[in-house]
Amino acid sequence: MEKVRPIELLAPAKDLTCGIEAINHGADAVYIGSPRFGARAMAGNSIEDISTLCEYAHRFNARIYVALNTLLYEHELENARMLVWDLYRAGADALIVQDMGLLELDLPPIPLHASTQTDNRTIDKVRFLESAGFDQVVLARELSLNEIRAIHEATNVHLEVFVHGALCVSYSGQCYLSHALSGRSANRGECAQYCRLPYTMIDANGVEIVSESHLLSLKDMNRSDQLEALLDAGVSSFKIEGRLKDVAYVKNITAYYRKKLDAILNRRPEYIRSSVGKSSYTFEPVPEKSFNRGFTNYFLNGRTSDITSFDSPKSKGELIGVVKEIKGNSFTVAGVKQLNNGDGLVFINSRGELEGFRVNRVEANRVFPLNMPAIKPKMQLYRNYDHSFEQEMNKPTAERKINVDIEFSDNMFGFTLSMTDETGIGAIISEPFLKEPARKSQEYNIRAQLSKLGNSPFDVSDIRICFDKDWFVPSSLLAEMRRKAVEKLLENRRISYPKEYAKRKPASASLSFPEKQLTYLGNVLNSKAESFYYARGVKTIEPAFEAAVRKDVPLMFTKHCLRYSMGWCPVWQKGKSPYKEPFYLTYKETKLRLQFDCKACQMLIFATM
User: In the CATH hierarchy, which top-level class contains the domain 5-167+219-281+283-287?
Assistant: First the structure.
């Protein structure tokens, strides 16, 4: 039987505020962008802020992972090395990296996590990364439960999977479309998101198949109903996407997954939470109320038809009902959700586009818009801005507390206060005091004063009073001893924090890389990355796409397939297209050619202009 496995809920943070709220709302770990070299160029953070976040998270044994997951040019290597040392000294628990050149630098013993940008979708690749010294591997989003289970059974490394948030249509790290068309590299954190544009699909003869539809845009991931299956498949870290999302998103989605995971952990003793402290909330988390394009569990249980968001790349929000009756400048809604003044509603208009409007006033189920939209009866309505919910999210919405047992006792010279938290870490404070018998019972006041733990991360679980006699204890003494005990317990928790250190092995102890030749798909952009692969059995290496742009090579590899979406897949649907291939996607001056690799069950995208 497998030993008890620690499980972490990993939440995103674009900044310090989001990171602290992620911890407050139940995250076991938070990932945040470094000052430079993160895969979200607009989500960098200062060393000082990262240090502050580490100090706060470590109170709860929660961990901070810093994303330093772009490819590095030669002239950036030394700056990256110094940055890693700065992050290590700031208290970061691990780095999420893509560029293997980092492993050839003089690094501190900080654990490394292999970013999803390293294209981790096979047993051989994950086994290799484990042997190279990675402590955790972020698996490709496209993997099924069976594929995840097979990787877990063949390796010992911690496996991390995405469970919620936006989906890249291409395999991560294997998308070069943005760089080819605009010079903005996704592997450098500057993706221009060409996948979210409205394309017209034509065949080889120029016949239009689909007009101005978001054919490469996917729904957002939501695997909240598959968490237990993922646990049993071997996943240790559940990752929420969203380092560009606002604090309301982080609060809502983190709290939602915390509650879902806790319900499982409470009845599955073979899995334990990796951090401590219980969060309490002032709201009920609802994922549909945060940005989403509709939800899919992607390919977790095989190929399905629910993964695309062709109508719009914008947020739909939550379905609230259908238009019932239109009357003048108002209409009624058939639905069960309460609408509020100031809500934002959207619908799919007659052109197949997502259109929105603001609610000015609500009377029962009758809605008075600010400007009357072109809606019709039986149209579905979605709410992508819940005014009341957002107002609530702007307030303090969660507290996270660690349970402590308190014992207050007398001694020969005065009194002793001891605090022991739920992890067994304790603090003892003794104060000399001339004891006098009390005129009335002191128990109520002692309990009341010692329970006032205020803004500390602690919450009283039990108080024991151990006196020979009922001594008089002034409130001022109790308050001072309580304050000192809390400070000492915090310090003892800081000292006892279970920091992990990497034990990286030399290249000679690593497995050989699964391939002997690396094309541009290997993303080798500097000499240190070359050295890394040569030392591990690779014979020939082409430079990364960012170093030498190539023509007539695939710019995107995607498991999303437009032949399947149209019902023409010869494998799954036994279908046949009435149009002549190759197919093309066009948007203004951009023209992309589609190629279908049925053996690998993927679609390849080339640029023709």
Answer: alpha beta
